[in-house]
Design a protein that fits this description.
Two copies of one chain form a homodimer.
Chain A lengths: L2 E3 L5 E3 L3 H16 L4 E2 L1 H8 L3 H8 L12 E2 H11 L6 E6 L3 H7 L9 E8 L8 E2 L2 E5 L2 H10 L4 E4 L3 H13 L4 E4 L12 E4 L2 H29 L1
Parallel strand pairs in A: 5-6, 5-9, 6-8, 9-10, 10-11
Antiparallel strand pairs in A: 1-2, 3-4, 7-8
Helix pairs in contact in A: 1-4, 2-3
Amino acid sequence: MTLLKNLRGVAMIYIPYVVLERLKEYRKILLNLDCEYVTSEEIAKLAGVSSDLVRRDFMYLKINGQKKKGYNRIALLTELDETFAVKRNLNIIVVGGNRLGQALVTYDGFSSCGVRVVAIFDNNPENAGKFVEDLVILSLEPDILRRVIKRFSVSIAAVCVLPKDAQRVVDLLVENGIVGIWNFTPVKLAVPENVIVVDADLTSSLLMLKRLVDTKVFQKSEASNAYTSQE
Amino acid sequence: MTLLKNLRGVAMIYIPYVVLERLKEYRKILLNLDCEYVTSEEIAKLAGVSSDLVRRDFMYLKINGQKKKGYNRIALLTELDETFAVKRNLNIIVVGGNRLGQALVTYDGFSSCGVRVVAIFDNNPENAGKFVEDLVILSLEPDILRRVIKRFSVSIAAVCVLPKDAQRVVDLLVENGIVGIWNFTPVKLAVPENVIVVDADLTSSLLMLKRLVDTKVFQKSEASNAYTSQE
């Protein structure tokens, strides 16, 4: 297991992306349970994976289960919150003053995990000066951008501009110190190796829902058939 | 392997949620590659999992790799598109006429995967009648809701209402035939067993980005140290 130390001097274990995805899923499952202890078998069943995989994933956390009892649910959640730094405050900027950008500025869910939008930019100078709640839309100029990034220690930007502008805007952000791009555009972005892009992928979570509904609809009709045949 | 048939009579294989999550990830990776054949080892490396797991996941698809050559990339993508029914048209409704709801109505990325927002509802009667692009905001009344759902064969609704209204709105949707809830509220929704909820989870993809940036920032500084020490 590779040990890293981040810029704040906190030791971090390197965790592969796909493992992180599963840990995120386990966290959701644990939040939904209401018990003191939980076994890897129980989590595995709810997540649709093998209990062996769950135990292997948990080896990335600083926690051990107890024989028979399993894991303490709250301790496990605390470890997972730590992994995703849920408790640490994070300042982000939004680029794109359109409806999606405005929606991010006013999104309810961020406050519960310490995320704050400190500025909103637009690459169309005509929109600069307009208000979104209590934030003024700023013009996307290197000078202003650099100052905001420095003042609020921003490392992450949500990008909601038009597809045709996306790459140019991201280049500008990266030149001025942004190292994490939260990409709401359908564009596949090119960035230097030290920059991370996470595609916000509204479409992809919708496709997942579609698939699940398709399957479930069948299971339901199968179940009602089974019911009918018992009558 | 369990074989299902969905309501359109298409045979579907039951795939656990966590496997679907990985298949989605592989699909993204394959879209990003530019080669004719790809091995499970190559995909595994990019996804951060074992090649054994990749091969096991691909057993859910109707595709076989060739010895040494690996999988035909386009054939694999076609199978994955089939799995998520990317090509099939899907009508959804949006509930909540606020900024996020409006953003969904005008989101660029949907058209590329056949998704169309056919109506937007608001539970505040005052907002009914206002326009979002070319859609009129409809009042959330059972009668109107039922007609729209029937007319456009809608099974999925995006829910963007205030947290305090979320459960009541979802109850109403479910009563009137919605079986898939795309939940943009931070509320943990209670639904009958035959209804699927997918949390859109803006916060969760942001937390993932935060984690990746934290780790990457360290790797970068480690790399530049290594560079310095070679000088």
